[in-house]
Amino acid sequence: EEAEKVGWFDRVASYFGRVKQTDLVIFSRQLSTLLEAHLPLTDVLKTLEAQTTQPILKEAIYQISQDVGAGLAFSQALEHQGQIFSKFFVSMVRSAEVTGNLEKVVGFLADYYEKESALATKAKSALIYPVIILALFGVVAIIMITVVFPQIQPVFEQSGVTLPFYTRILLGSGAFLAKWWPAFVVVGFIVLFMILDYLRTDEGVAFIDDMKVRFPIVRKVYLPLTLTRISNTASMLLKGGVPMTQALEIVGETVDNVLYRDLLREVAQSVREGIHLADAMAKYPKYFPQLVPQMLSVGEATGQLDQIFTRISGFYSREADNVVNNLVDLIQPILMIGIGLLVGLLFASILLPLYQLTATIQ
Fold first, then answer.
1. CA distance 229 to 305
2. Is the pLDDT of residue 147 over 80?
C-alpha cells in the first residue's frame, strides 16, 4: 500500500496534540507495576486504558490492546504508535521480548523516563525567569529600534553630533525593519520551514546527531546519557543470554543516533571477525571515551562483561547528573549577565549621543 505523506498542517497539529513526557512517565510506571504483579499483558493493557485520562494516550493504549489481542507482539503494537512511543522505547521492549525479562526492562524504562523528566523539569524551572526577561527585552528592543530611535534621529542629524558606531548600527537596523518588516517575516518563515524540512531528511538527522557529539556543551550532557543507555541495554541483553554481536546490533537500534547505530554495527562486525570488543570500541575515541574500552577489557578478561556494562552505566549516569546540575546552576547567572550587557548597550546607544548633544548646546 502506498504510504500517505504527512502534510505541514498535520505536522503542526501533531505538535499541539502530542502526549507529554509526564504522561509517558506515569504510563511506564503503571505498566511496570502491573507486570510485576504477573498479570497477563492483555489484562494489563485494559487496566491501563481504564486508568488513563489523557485522550490521545488512551486511544493509543486501546489500539495496542487490540493489536496484542490479534496476535502481534507487544513491540510491534507499540511501533504502530510511533508518534507516541520513541524508537528507544520500542527497541527496549523488543530486546526484552528476546531475553524474556519484560518486567525488568519496563521497570528500567520507568526509572529512565522518571529521571529524564526530573532533569528536564529542573532545567525548565531554571530557564523560565531568564526566558521571560529575555522575551521582554526583545519586545522593548524592537520598540526602541523601530519607534523611538527613528523619531530622535533627525535631532542628532541637525545638531551634527557624531554618533557612536553601535548607535549607527541600531538606527540602520530600525530603519530597515520599519521599511521591510513584512518581507523580513515572510523570508524568516520560509527559511525556518526549509530548515525544519531539511532536518527531517536522513541527511538532516545525521547532521543533528553529529552536532550532538561535536558541540562541546551539548556533548557534555549527551555523551554520558547515551553511554548510560547503551550500557544498560547491553547489560540486560547479555544477562538474558543474547550473543554479543546480536546484543550490539540491538543496542544500536535503541540509541536515537544514526552515527552510534552505524558504529555499533561496525563494532559487532569486528567482534565477528575475532577482534576484542574493547579494541573495536577503542577505534572510535570520540564516541567511546577511553574509560569504556579500558573497563570492557577487564570485563572480557574476567568473563563479566554484563557486570562491567552495569558499572559503566552507573558511572556515566552519575556524571550526567553532575553535568546537568552544574549547567542548570550556571544558566541563570550567565543569561542575566548577558541580558544586562544587552540592556546596557541598548540604552548607552541613545544616552551617550544625548549627553553629547546636551554638552554641545551648553
1. 16
2. no
* Full-model pTM: 0.68
Check if the beta carbon of residue 206 is closer than 8 Å to that of residue 258.
yes
Residues 6 or more apart whose Cβ sits within 8 Å of residue 66: none
CB atoms within 10 A of CB 287: 19
| pLDDT, position 2 | 52
d(CA 107, CA 34): 10
Burial of 44 (0-12, 13-18, 19+ CB in 10 A): buried
Q: Report d(CA 105, CA 234) in Å as an integer.
A: 12
**12 has a pLDDT exceeding 90:** no
Q: What average pLDDT is seen over the chain?
A: 81
Q: Is the distance from CB of 281 to CB of 272 less than 8 angstroms?
A: no
Distance from C-alpha of 298 to C-alpha of 301, rounded to nearest angstrom: 5
Residue 330 makes CB contacts below 8 A (sequence gap 6+) with none
Determine the average pLDDT of the residues in 188-217. 87
Tally Cβ neighbours within 10 Å of residue 35: 18
Rounded average pLDDT over 258-273: 91
Closest by CA position to 239, among listed 93, 91, 96, 90: 96
First to last CA, the chain: 83
The SS3 call for residue 174 is helix
**Amino acid 64: pLDDT:** 93
d(Cα 98, Cα 92) in Å, to the nearest integer? 10
Q: How far apart are the C-alpha atoms of 191 and 209, rounded to whole Å?
A: 21
Distance CA 35, CA 152 (A): 71
Packing angle, helices 258-272 and 216-239, rounded to 10: 40
**Banded pLDDT at 132 (limits 50, 70, 90):** confident
The cell numbers describing 182, all together, are 513584512
